[in-house]
Design a protein that fits this description.
Blueprint (H helix, E strand, L loop, with lengths): L29 H6 L15 E5 L3 H12 L3 E5 L10 E3 L8 E3 L10 H9 L4 E3 L11 E5 L2 E5 L7 H18 L1 H10 L2 H15 L4 H6 L7 H10 L14 H9 L7 E3 L5 H8 L14 H4 L8 E7 L3 E6 L4 E4 L2 E3 L11 E2 L6 H9 L2 E2 L1 E8 L18 E4 L5 E5 L7 E9 H5 L6 H15 L14 E4 L10 E2 L6 H8 L14 E3 L11 H18 L15 H4 L8
Parallel strand pairs: 1-2, 1-12, 6-16, 9-13, 12-21
Antiparallel strand pairs: 3-4, 5-8, 6-7, 9-10, 10-11, 14-20, 15-18, 15-19, 16-17, 17-18
Length: about 575
């Protein structure tokens, strides 16, 4: 397991089906849909070449545009910043270009099977990501309340950490039918998934993550809850998620989204960039050699400044240059708050309940800071202890999580000095990159007093605070208690036959409206939902042997809670 505190129920049966992000809210097999030789569907030949606006050039927008292009439509992509969205890979000035830092998404679980389809499609490689105590991590140091523990496996940590692991396992089993749901997801047993989940949604929608722990007899100890919050499971501490809905956490652990992570060699931003340039071999209407890049003259259009409905129920888009275009359909994949602030929007774009849902969406802040170093010095052995000089570090100090990233013993390497969320992220916001680095080096110096990290740094730090990024205003969506109904409205927006006729034509997509926000898989899934919706609007259909998410909607629709 990669977890500091392992998830419940260890699967040892090698013949068991692999887990995927198959539900539980919408148990549709997106990986099967993508792999089917019949493709995602087709539109009437009379509609070929019709323009569709795709607003946002992140992963969701680029996938939606790519698949619509393959169907014979002409996507017009608008991007305010850079292609990639929260798949943002940057280099270090003056350093070898092979040294990169993942400012956004940096680790992906194998259960992200629809995402993996596109990773394989563009020929990218992945490798194990060095999470706490994972097989890819030589060693981990857990430093809490001034006391440090060195470990290569969880068995090297004091007994209290195993007690916390056992408490988490018991809490999940007793409070959330973990084994039963995990098995149903693994076997893609839709009736059983829906039976379990419908009861949990009704019972737990108003419950916080922390409240769920407190209700468990296994977590009656405050000390155990505190350690769990600071060290957590999978990627590290989870106390910044304590105010969020427990349903958000259950989605993660049920689908093993926080386990067995892999990183993309060379950086995650390569995925949307390669799709932008890719010339598909199976394409309708457009000649072979067509790509999204070629349809746009190499660059997407700029930022959208205004969105309105105009006669004939069209969507009219104004961009930063003042150019005005009108479309029969548009896909919006950007951060949903942009529709409330930076983009001048017509109220008629969405039903009032959808506007409310967007306004109530809760976002998590997140900050990272990386430095390039001359070599992976942390692999040097301490002469007195025989231990690694430095380790992947989890701490209650300002840095919280420090990750060590290398490409081999004799090559330059990268340290993520700090990765923080929410209040921990806001503490960094007023500080410049160099001020942040100084505080981080001081904190790590208290854990590793004999390690001169500074002497190995070969370039300036790079940093991000996603809450301060004008086109994002946060790292990812995370529902608060009571937000399930809002989330359902946004995710199901692609089913527009259920909307008034004057509210159709613009489709929401992207990580922000997915059930698995914070994971790139959600961006992929909602993009494919929007593709189905646009295809349906243009009179198209899927092959009968490969029904799309909209075709099976009535069988797998998310649980609907009463409004009164």
């Amino acid at each position: 397991m990669t977890s500091t505190v392992p998830n419940a129920v260890q699967h040892t049966d090698a013949t068991a089906p692999p887990i995927t992000m198959f539900g539980p809210d919408f148990p549709y097999a997106y990986d099967d849909f993508l792999a089917h030789p019949a493709g995602l569907g087709q539109i009437p030949a009379t509609e070929h070449g019709q323009e569709v606006a795709v607003i946002g050039g992140g992963l969701s927008g680029i996938i939606a545009a790519y698949e619509l292009m393959k169907m014979g439509l002409k996507p017009v992509v608008y991007e305010a910043d850079r292609i990639g969205g929260r798949l943002r890979t940057v280099g270090f000035d003056g350093c070898d270009p092979s040294l990169t830092a993942e400012m956004g998404a940096m680790r992906f679980p194998p259960s992200s099977t629809a995402l993996q389809h596109y990773i394989d499609l563009v020929g990218l490689e992945t490798r194990a990501f060095p999470n706490p105590l994972s097989p890819a991590t030589p060693s981990t140091v857990v430093d809490l309340k001034g006391e440090s523990h060195y470990a290569e496996t969880i068995d090297d940590l004091p007994q209290v950490y195993r007690d916390v692991a056992n408490a988490w396992n018991a809490c999940l089993e007793e409070g959330a039918d973990f084994s039963d749901m995990n098995r149903a997801l693994r076997e893609r047993d839709v009736p059983r998934i829906r039976e379990i989940w419908s009861q949990l949604v009704e019972r737990l929608d108003n419950q916080t993550f922390y409240g769920f722990l407190c209700e468990s007899e296994a977590f009656r100890s405050f000390r155990h809850r505190e350690i769990f919050g600071q060290v957590g499971f999978g990627t590290g501490g989870w106390d910044t998620d304590f105010p969020n809905s427990i349903l958000e956490i259950l989605r993660v652990v049920y689908t093993e989204a926080d386990d067995h992570h892999r990183g993309i060699v060379g950086g995650s931003q390569q995925l949307p960039l390669r799709l932008w340039d890719r010339e598909p071999q199976k394409i309708v209407h457009w000649p072979l050699g067509t790509s999204l890049a070629s349809l746009h003259g190499g660059e997407p259009r700029g930022a959208v400044t205004r969105l309105t409905r105009t006669a004939g129920n069209r969507i009219t888009v104004t961009d930063a240059t003042g150019d005005i275009r009108t479309f029969r359909a548009a896909v919006f994949t950007g951060q949903s708050w942009l529709l409330l602030s930076k983009i001048d929007c017509d109220d008629a774009l969405f039903p009032i309940d959808h506007w409310t849902a967007m306004e109530r969406t809760h976002y998590m802040e997140s900050s990272k800071l990386f430095v390039p170093v001359d070599r992976p010095f942390w692999l040097d052995k301490d002469e007195l202890t025989g231990r690694d000089t430095m380790s992947m570090t989890l701490t209650d100090r300002m840095t919280r999580g420090t990750y060590l990233l290398d490409d081999g013993p004799d090559k330059p390497a990268v340290i993520c000095l700090s990765y923080t969320w929410c209040d921990d992220s806001l503490k960094w916001l007023p500080l410049s990159p160099k001020e942040r680095m100084e505080v981080m080096l001081k904190s790590l110096g208290e854990i590793y007093p004999n390690v001169d990290i500074r002497s190995h740094i070969i370039g300036n730090p790079v940093t991000v605070s996603w809450e301060n990024e004008p086109w994002f205003m946060g790292a990812f969506k995370a529902n608060l208690p009571g937000h399930y109904r809002y989330q359902r409205r946004l995710f199901t927006h692609f089913m527009q036959d259920r909307l008034p006729e004057d509210k159709r034509g613009i489709f929401l997509a992207g990580d922000d409206i997915s059930w698995t926000a914070g994971w790139a898989e959600g961006a992929v899934q909602t993009a494919l939902n929007a593709v189905w919706g646009v295809m349906h609007q243009f009179g198209g259909a899927t092959d009968p042997t490969n029904p799309g998410p909209g075709d099976l909607y009535d069988e797998i629709a998310p649980v609907e809670l009463p409004e009164d």
